[in-house]
Amino acid sequence: QVQLVESGGGLVQAGGSLRLSCAASGRTFSSYVMGWVRQAPGKEREFVAAIRWSSGSTYYADSVKGRFTISRDNAKKMLYLQMNSLKPNDTAVYYCAADKYYPNLVLSRADYWGQGTQVTVSS
């Protein structure tokens, strides 16, 4: 049974920072790509960032490049998203996701999902 559990969401003012965490359990993720997908109210899910668990290669949506940083701790099976210079349009539920194929994260078709954590950025 794979479990992804997010934490770290909250309310922050524009320009502020938050760090999201995702605890992964239940299998070995060495061959997986893990990432973050967000969904704003009334909108479809949107890819944010991903990282290959084994190599550490990272991928970002254009909207967050230079502001967000994805990272992982292999030993602890933890995934992180450091979010800086937050904007009101970053407000969304952020989901941790995992799949063997990067395109599936981009298309929000990942095999495994967490329950989501709310991020609200006030102006």
Overview of the molecule:
It is a single chain. Strand 7 (68-73) and strand 8 form a beta hairpin. The protein has 1 helix and 11 strands. Strands 2, 4, 5, 6, 9, 10 and 11 form a 7-stranded mixed beta sheet that branches. A 4-stranded antiparallel beta sheet has the order 1-3-8-7, with no helix packed on it. It is globular and about 40 Å long. The protein is mostly beta strands and 123 residues long. 4% of the residues lie in helices and 50% in strands. It starts with a strand and ends with a strand. 33% of the residues are buried.
**How is the biggest beta sheet arranged?**
7 strands, mixed
What do the pLDDT scores average to?
95
What is the end-to-end distance? 40 Å
Residues in helices, as a percent range:
under 10%
Provide the succession of SSEs: EEEEEEEEEHEE
Radius of gyration: 13 Å
Number of strands: 11
Structural class: mainly beta
What general outline do the C-alpha atoms trace?
A: globular
Task: Quickly count the helices.
Answer: 1
Weakly predicted, low-confidence segments: none
Q: Estimate the strand proportion.
A: over 45%
